[in-house]
Design a protein that fits this description.
Blueprint: E1 9-12, H1 23-31, E2 36-40, E3 46-47, E4 53-54, E5 58-59, E6 70-73, H2 78-81, H3 86-97, E7 102-105, H4 107-114, H5 128-132, E8 147-150, E9 153-156, H6 161-171, H7 177-189, H8 192-200
Parallel strand pairs: 1-2, 1-6, 2-5, 6-7, 7-9
Antiparallel strand pairs: 3-4, 8-9
Length: 204
């Protein structure tokens, strides 16, 4: 379970989800005592871009913000090709309205843009014109950065899974300061000096 709130972290899973975008975050959270529960459109199995078959722990209709520490929304081809994932964006609105964090990466940021959730929050994505194509009103809040946290919302582009994880770990209080910086340097930059910092802090 989440060592801070006693609540699990929920990872959204759906067909065509991008395997590489959330692995750093969920692996590190699980290794530090956070329960990860998968939530799908239903409890029927889904298949990722990489061909992994995932059996959701629960259906989206059964997910309530008060039962969660965080909702993670990975990218997926379906964000841009159908409206099938719009219910996940609506759930993200319910989470944010309740003050429960949401972390969205890649195509999921476009889903949030279409839902109007990025109009008044700093955010990032793959590139600014990708979100502009949604017709959203938040272009003035777009930030050129690897990942952006604005209150309870984290956003990142598809090439930044480590930065995405860094912001999640910071937001949930898993690592802070020097230890968080070292974790990022190790997994993003392959900096061998960072290993010693993490080992000393018992963060490996």
């Amino acid at each position: 379970m989440n060592t801070t709130t006693g609540k699990p972290v929920h990872l959204a899973v759906y067909d065509t989800l991008a395997d590489w975008e959330t692995g750093h975050a969920t692996a590190q959270l699980a290794r530090t005592g956070h329960e990860i529960r998968t939530v799908g459109p239903s409890t029927a199995p889904v298949r990722s871009i990489g061909g992994l078959r995932v059996q959701p722990d629960l259906a989206l209709e059964d997910l309530r913000p008060e039962d969660s520490a965080l909702l993670i929304l990975p990218g997926a081809d379906l964000w841009d090709t159908t409206d099938d994932l719009a219910p996940f964006a609506r759930t993200a609105r319910a989470f944010l309205d309740a003050g429960v964090p949401v972390a969205a990466i890649c195509g999921a940021t476009a889903g949030l843009a279409r839902e109007g959730l990025l109009d008044d929050r700093d955010h990032t994505s793959a590139i600014s014109f990708y979100l502009a194509a949604t017709g959203y009103a938040g272009g003035g809040r777009y930030v050129e950065a690897d990942a952006v946290t604005d209150g309870p919302l984290i956003t990142a582009g598809p090439t930044e899974p480590v930065a995405f994880a860094r912001e999640i770990l910071r937001l949930l209080g898993v690592y802070q300061g020097e230890v968080l910086a070292a974790w990022y340097r190790l997994f993003h930059d392959s900096d061998p000096a960072a290993y010693g910092v993490l080992e000393k802090a018992g963060a490996l």
